[in-house]
Amino acid sequence: MKTRIDSVEDIIRSFSEQGYICSERIALAVYLAAQLHKPVLVEGPPGVGKTELAKAAAAFLEAPLIRLQCYEGLDESRALYEWKYGKQLLYTQLLRDKLGGMLADTDSLEASMDRLGDLGEAFYSETFLEPRPLLHALRSEEPAVLLIDEIDKADQEFEAFLLELLSDFQISIPELGTVKARHQPLVLLTSNDQRELSDALKRRCLHLYIPYPEAELEANIVAARVPDLDARLRDQLVAFIQYLREQDMKKLPAISETLDWARALVLLHADSLEQELVADTLNLVLKTEQDVTLARELLPAWLRKLGKR
Amino acid sequence: MPVRRLSEFVQALRGAGLRISPDEATQGMDAAALVGYQGRQRFHDALAMTLVKREEDRPAFEETFARFFAVTSGVASAGPQDSAMPAPVEGAGDPAAQVDDGQAGDGAESDTPDLTTQTPAELDQRLAEAAAQMDFTQMEVITQQGLYTRRLLMNMGMGAVDDRILQLDQGDATRQVRAETLRQWRREVREQAADHVRRQFLLHGAGKGRALREQTMRAVPFRHLREFQEVKTLVRRMARRLASLHQRRMKRSRRGMLDARRTLVAGIRHDGVPARLHWRQRPVQKSRVMVICDVSSSVSDAARFLLQFLYAMNDVLPRVRSFAFASRFDEISEDFQRYSPDVAVGRVLDRLSGSGTDYGEMFADFWRRCERELDSHTTVIILGDARNNYLPEGAEVLQQIRRRVKQVWWLNPEARSRWNSGDAVMDRYLPHCRLARQCASLDDLERIVDSLLKGLN
Predict the structure, then answer these.
(1) ipTM of this complex prediction, to 2 decimal places
(2) Whole-model pTM?
(3) What is the CATH number of domain A8-78+134-209?
């Protein structure tokens, strides 16, 4: 991992080389997170590039990206570590005779228990430990970027469990003791605001809100990602998307949808937004029937306005 | 400036309603130190990232930031043209005038330069210096502003000017004219000082005042609550706090234990090896709450808040059905599903309010409508004053209801001593209620909903 980050501009440059065009605020968040060793909580509507940010940050820092996808019911055994129960069981079965032999020369129950007690440690050792993403991140040989994706989907108790990791970069495992991070990872948490996260969690993180991009930024993003698209068409497309976001849609189009649409237009060799073309490809941008219908109704008026300009 | 100014800024943010922990404040300072103070936008972003953790706090942050850092930059860059301070008093500084009012001028000028001769920019500077020596963070109520303004003016050296005016007043006509000019000048400076204090109050004092008001709002009877503007926010916040508290509790009680019996039984087919572990899981209780609110004029305030509260807790209380009655009885759940609680309450009151409550009739109506849905997971909450206008009470129907459901609660907005006064007949209903409480303020309400949730999970 890169240990020195010279400036915020450095980050912006590297990100844009990777095709991740971002506002200064986003780069500043990565800069502060790396310098202050604080996790970043990234919030914002779906599809604005929260997960992409983690990938870009990992590439910039030349660090491996470890990803933990959250979902309801996610618990420690899936996130941190698990004992390989099956393997433990198999070993005890295979070693049954051996164990019997070992215990044969003991004469009292207490003595056998003692001997077993010494042995018990063996069954809760590294051999039987199945590390999951969080433990991977802590024990990683080189500093990593840890992405905890959609934390709002996990249960509240999982959130509480994360607190120790986020503030001290360590985690307690009853059988092994406290595992401290070899190298502090850069932690990014993302949330779609499905539920309110606890204050304790928010307190430990820097907070970054990524809104839908402004027209200029969005045009830059499209230019970087879909370079084949004609510049004039690109501006039209971005203007139309921006216009759609102001409407009362059920699901607003995000950047990823803008890009999909842009790619489709390149494939169709379109050179300007026309009524028929837009009407046919609208479902790349809008994902519910109601929205598509609404957009179709709005379209002629908008195109007329565009023509006048 | 940095550390002290920044910690004042954090104080101001707290005043504006943000919750910032000491740790976050330190983070903010570290971040600010890291990005430097040159680029305003970047400085702003760094602070926002470390100090603002909820999007709903952002407007307050932006406002406080603009106000707080505008004050500083204003002082630093104020030229004579953009300062609101008055120009130097004509003739106050020239030698003739000094001779004219001899001793007074000398006395004042010996320690500090004469205020009246200073340019607006210099005055601004003086004001800022004087203000820097004062601690505005202790201001709590709006009426303290006068006191702070006076202190600020004294620190600027206005005392000497006051003395001069007094002396001039006792002189002849020309001197009195001069006194009047000075007085005018003083008024203008005082306005500026008062303005400064007001800004400081908005930054620091308003928050403390709000905490005080919040305490009052919680304790005051419902009918007076409408006089407060922030009541809605408070209700929402209380509900959210309570909801998150109980959400956690709900999840915890749902966690399983090892089910030894099932594990062993399942292991039989593997020769007694417990290859698969089974966990005991508590079945999730499907509790249902039915609320019946009296919305006649005497109780409607309490009903408004009870309903707002219950529906704000949708996360933890998903199955609430609500009914309202005054002269008529009707289900109002749909209003709450379709509109936000504030709007819904208004609509319900418009539709059903009136006077002449008949509890007996209401119970019979409720029984007819919901008999088949009443089961042992249902809690029925009745909010009303039990003032029955001397009509038949219908207590036997309530008894019937009680037998079918888990529990009946009665919330009465009146004090316990008045529960049976006049046409109120609480004693007839009490035997059928598992719990009866007074519910007259937000504090009461919070306690009641809290114990309701404890009982449900």
Answers:
(1) 0.81
(2) 0.65
(3) 3.40.50.300
